[in-house]
Amino acid sequence: MKYALLLATACLLQACVKDQQDEINDGGWNHERSVLNIAFENQIGNATIDNLDATTGDIELSINVGAQPSMADVKLTNLELSYQARASIKAGDHLDFSTGKASFTVTSTLGETRTYTIKAKSFLEELVGSWTINALTIYGGTGPEYGGGAVMKLTDKPWCWKDATGPAKETDNTLTFTLDGVTAAGNPTGRCVNEAGADKTFADFIFQGSMNKEGKDDIDLKHFYRQIPEGESTWERDYTKGTITFTAKDGRQTTGSFIGSGEVSCGNGKSFNVENNAFQFALNGKDDWTNIYSDYDKFAKKPRLYWISVTKKK
After folding, report:
1. Which one of 77, 224, 234, 251 has the lowest number of neighbouring Cβ atoms within 10 Å?
2. Does position 197 have pLDDT exceeding 60, yes or no?
């Protein structure tokens, strides 16, 4: 009798487990009807998805109108839903955002629905156009907490550079940006042409041997200061990370950020004022306590931040 009771109990438990598994497989428990991810052609960055309540949700995203032929015909490239949910639209469909909005419905396996309203903002890449380089500025120096740091233009110390090919040769250059499209990650990308100005000369960023504290040879500092390649390169702007990456024809890449007007704090009482716009790059210099306070230390050994100040042509 004891064994028969145990066997009956085991069979009952097994039946319960089987019933629960069938319910899981059939979705009888599943109320989920959420959008996990959504993306459209020429979308910039990631969409913001907000489930307002059990029946409504909002989605906000930006479409690059410089690359999108018509906001009335925008292609959905990716749609990820919660487990077993289904939607009234699918990847490959085209939505009409001519009014700035569009809606669709997500349905759970139990038949419950949530209606999402997509608010599509028009985005126009500010880089597109031509810019004049105004100045090249660094924040550099070993031991800024001991007075070793300074913010200064490369042209403030002309004796550190070659007269014919010093940094001053960059301050009449023109940067022209064109937009070619948007990457699968939602990053605008295109071409940049860095054209020498009236002097037809690019700076070579050769630091004079006469200012070299550790020898007599000239020092090539292009690895620090040639952040935007000469001639044509490609660019990609990642709004999620706040970066812009340049890729030269030889494959060398440099990454910085594009910032607007305002004061940039460098710490230790130092700051840099951006008048219009600037490309900002973090430089990986090395401390040189032996030559602290020297121009050699600030320019050649421990440059920290670098700004290429620009003004957009009208």
Report:
1. 251
2. yes
